[in-house]
Amino acid sequence: MPNLTQLFNEVSFKAVRSSGAGGQHVNKTASKVILTFNVEQSSGLSEEEKHLLSKKLLSRLTLNNELILECSETRSQHKNKELVLERFKELILKGLIKPKKRKKTKPSRASKFKRLREKKMHSEKKSNRRKPEL
Q1: pTM for this structure?
Q2: Which of 19, 45, 93, 125 could form a disulfide with 49 if both were Cys (CB 3.0 to 4.6 A apart)?
Q3: For residue 43, how many other CB atoms are within 10 A of its CB?
């Protein structure tokens, strides 16, 4: 389990103007928040956690192993900062969940019998559709 407060301290924020409709307000306030976090340089993660995050978040990381999240849902910069931090926390926690090892299993005798019985019934159904041989 990573130290989330330390990770939050390693995050950097940038506020920029939001795009889209919004009238005069959107043209003069920087309410969009961009969060950047470097996975490789983080001291709040162990080497194993860094490797796991790099693997799971591969499509979301830049070439410099930086995670970039942005939020412009509300008109408030503070609310957007809270939302992007919450999204960051969820992403990190989901990314650190280790997948369960698959256990090899054999099909049971009953399941084999059921499969073969259904296969036979299907075969008979199809053969009954043919024209009779004279």
Answers
A1: 0.67
A2: 45
A3: 10
